[in-house]
Every structure is written in structure tokens, then in C-alpha cells.
Amino acid sequence: MVELSFGNKVDRFIRRKAPYLFISPFFVFFLVFGAFPIFFALYLSFHDWNGIANSPMVYIGWENYWYTLTDPLFWQALKNTIILTIESSVPQHVLGLFFAFIINLGFVKFKSFFKTTLFLPYITSTVAVSMVFAILFGYPYGFLNYLLVSVNKLPFFQTVFNWLRLDPPLKWLGSTSLMLPAISTQIIWRWTGWNTILYLAGLQTIPQELYEAARVDGAKWYQVFFKITLPSLRPVIQFAVTMSIIGGLQIFNEPFIMVGKDGGTGRAGYTLAMYLYQTGFEWGYFGSAAAISYLVFVLIFIFSFLSRKLLRSDEGVS
């Protein structure tokens, strides 16, 4: 009887604890590679440390934050990042919404092909694509400059370029005014397909009865768009814009590869992520780098909160 009772206890213990044993790898992985870096970075942001394991960490309080907020380089990087985020986010959402509408039309054939083609840039290597775009915008023999020089021989384009005060070939990645638009072009190319799929999924959830009722009532296409489609897509738009804000404030690969770690001419392509990278891994101020990461987190939270307020989805469709 004793052996039977002991066996039952072991069996009950196994049944109760086995599920926790099976899910423990996720929690171990999360604690080691997720939670620990977050809290260690917060701890590190209040210390002075050069990143060497045996070197001491010196507590300096809020000095890292104060130094970052008074550094002109931080504000220049923030300005460039916000401009780049706006320049790249607005077109990708407009184009994504447009392509989603086209693909969602009933008479469009080969929808899977178009969705795959649009989504393909998202899964390509950012490094490889950045190198291709750097060649595309190259001076003076890049493909885009070759095209501009060729069309500049025509009288119409000569007039247009003179009016715009442009003289091809252009230093796309060497000009403070053209650098950010050139970088944003690649970001738009990369993320338009992602937003297209999001908006397409949102469009397919809108009940067709709403459109049928609107057509019966004689509603125009623009009335249907602004009164039915956009309100119904508002939660999807909110999510897509929030993701663009999060990604935009962390832009690193594209400008780093296309214009270099210093941001190119006049640091016009210098972003917050590049500033964080140089502060920690080149200049050896890991405490300041940790402080920058938390300042970026605060900025992401603020902008995401504002976008959520502006794009707040109401109950029902007006």
C-alpha cells in the first residue's frame, strides 16, 4: 500500500508539473534574451561603463540622460529621424492603401501573384538592397543619374529641371537636401508591400452589405470611401501607422549602408540608431548608449500615443 500511495503521489506530481516543464524553455529564453537586457540597460543608463567586462561601473545618476539631451548631435539625429520617418511613412501608406484597393477589386486576376510581388521586398536582405540603391543613386554614373542626363537633352525636361534648379547628374547621397529623400525611397519600396497586405486584410473584413446598402441609397464612390471604407479601416490604419513610427524611429541599416556611419555630408543622414551605435560601440560610452535607447523608447511611446489618439477607432461606422 505504501508503494502504491507513493506511486500515486509521483504520478500526480508529474501531471501537475509536466506542463510547466514543457513551457519553461520559452520563459527561460524570454528572461535571458528579453527581460534581462531591458532591465540591465535601464540599470546601465545610470552608470558610466566602457563595455569591458572587468572594468568597474560607476554610478553617475541622471548624468547620461542630461549629457544626451544637451548634445547637439542628438537633436540633429532626432530631426533627421523624424523627417525620414515622415517622408517614408506617408507615401508607403498611401501606396499601400491604393494597391490594396486595386487587388481587392473583384475583376482583378492573378491576385496571388501581385500580393507576392508587392510583399517580396519586405523579405529581401536589407543590406543587399541598400547596396543596390546606393549604386542606383550613385554619382555621377548611377542608373538614375544616367536616366536624368539622358532625358535632360529634351527641351521639355530642360525646362522642368531649370525650373526646379536641378542640373543632372545629381549628388543624391552627397547633398544635404537630396539625401533623406533618396534614403526614404528605399524604405518606401521595402515597406509598401507590408502595408498593402495589412490594408487588404482589413478591406476583406468589411461587410459587403454596407456597400450594397450605400449603392441602393445612391451614394457616390467618394462618399462610400470616406463614410464606410476609411472608418472601417481605422483600426488597421492605427496599427500600421504605429508600426511605421516604431520602425521609423529605429532606422539604421538603410542610412548606415547608403551614406556611412557618420551620416554623410553634413550628417544629413544621421539617425538616432546610428547615434546610439557610435556612442556605445565606437566611443565606448555604454551608459550613454543605454540612456539613448530609453530616450528613443520614450519618443516611440509618445508618438504612438499621439497617433492612437488621432486615429482612435470609434464604435460602429458613421
Summed up, what is this model?
The protein is an all-alpha fold and 318 residues long.
Q: What strand line-up does the widest sheet have? A: 1-2
**How are helices and strands ordered from N to C?**
HEEHHHHHHHHHHHH
The profile of the biggest β sheet is: 2 strands, antiparallel
Name given to the CATH homologous superfamily of the largest domain? MetI-like
Explain what the structure shows.
With 318 residues, the chain is mainly α. It folds into three domains: 2-37, no CATH class; 63-130 and 173-310, MetI-like (MetI-like fold, Orthogonal Bundle), CATH 1.10.3720; 138-171, no CATH class. The chain has 13 helices and two strands. It has helices at residues 2-44, 63-69, 72-104, 111-123, 126-136, 143-151, 155-164, 179-203, 208-216, 221-248, 253-259, 272-282, 286-310; strands at residues 47-48, 58-59. Strands 1-2 form a two-stranded antiparallel ribbon. α5 (126-136) crosses α11 (253-259). The longest helix is centred in the first third of the chain and has 43 residues, at 2-44. The N and C termini lie far apart (72 Å). The mean pLDDT is 87.
